[in-house]
Amino acid sequence: MLDRNTTVNRKKRDPDRPRGIGFLMVVLACLASTSALAETLRGTALIRERIALPAGVTFEAVVEDVSRADASANIVARTAIDAPGQSPIGFAIEYDPATLDPGAIYALRATIRRNGELLFTTDTVTHVLGDGDPASVDVVLKMVSGNATADVGPNIGAHGLRLPASFRGTLPCADCEGIRHHLDLWPGQYYHLRREWLGGAEGALTRDEIGRWYADPVRDAIVLYGAAEMPLFWQIRGPDRLRQMDMAGNPILSDLPYDLTSDGTLDPTELNGMALLGMMTYFADAAIFEECLSGVRYPIVQDGDYLALERAYLDAQSAPGAPLLVHVTGGLASRPAMEGPDRTSLVVERFNRVIPGESCEQRQSQASLSNTYWRIDSLMGAPVQTLPDSRAPHVVLLDTPDMRFRATVGCNQLIGGYDRAGDALTFGPGASTMMACPPPLDASEDSLRAVLEATRSLRQTGTTLQFLDEGGAPVAELTAVYQR
Q1: 160 CB contacts (<8 Å, ≥6 apart)?
Q2: Could you give the CA distance from residue 139 to residue 119 in angstroms, rounded to a whole number?
Q3: CA dist., res. 335 & res. 341, Å (int)
Q4: Sign of the dihedral through C-alpha 13, 15, 18, 24
């Protein structure tokens, strides 16, 4: 025993022996093997309640070994998404099949938290990674009962609308009895719209479309752009009211009823006969369609011309379950889901074609500094809260000849001038409304005034913005929202 220990110690002290090379080669080989063998579990998470997620949430999905009832579940793979947007939430979890136990039982669990507090969670077991389990799953999250965070319902954004919500109204028509509108708006900046021209010679003419919207702070409006022949402008007249503008985005000066109103709830309308382009994935009899313009994912109903679409997809796919660009004519309607509430699903009325080798264009990643709602996330290092029934805290740098800004933390509106040259930025003194602000808005408003006075420069990266003081230290953190 003594001789063996002596030999080992001599080898450790040998200066001529290369150290760490063998270990490094083993590590690199393992990493390469892991990368080569990694597979992906894809899924979509939905929220049972029809409400909007607040800002600052994190979505997490984990795969756990739940084989032993007398032991805590062991996590084998996970993914986390900061600021995941609104429901439905698409996610992907990479895992190494070589690490799985053939005799184990694996389940998927998903949660949504804000500042560590649990808001939503799955409450049913979804088996995954077993024989016969699909490579794409849908899970439903429900609100945690008794949760103190009551402001996860319809929120008033910086633009001033209470979303998600449905807006309705019958607007004037020059050559018909009226144009009935049903407009569904989601905080994730996508919309559904049905318009019916009433009283025509051949009955009602219907036109349906989906698309994206963005907020135009110069006009105090939202702009719909989708399948319409040109953008549609709607002036924001209150949290639950929109007024139609003309095709150039100017107000319509008339006593006629050009308004759409909402009762603060979302009741999605059924849509039909739309030309739709999107990425389709298919695995284990489950098909998903991600519409290109809005980026929203819909399950595909196995009715209508679905079989022609499926056959064309299987013939053209590059690998099992791989996304493929497809063009169909179809509609969106509520259909029963495997679990949880009914889901808005794609009904294929006519299969048109598949388009191998192409994909949906990516949206712009760089926000415009001017004419964009910049949501205030923090002031002087402290997070800024959004209170129920208050506009989201924001700053807008208007691109006007006199270079004006607007800002609020949800109470008073601050208006004034600003100067900018490159990254140099200063705010001048301005006017303000004079409401008494309740806590914590009073402290936040004092911080906002101090930030505007201290700002000397800016730093922008994509959709994030910082105001910096004279020494280059951040005094405010902001995020672009509602940009085109």
Answers
A1: 220, 236, 238, 239, 391
A2: 16
A3: 9
A4: positive
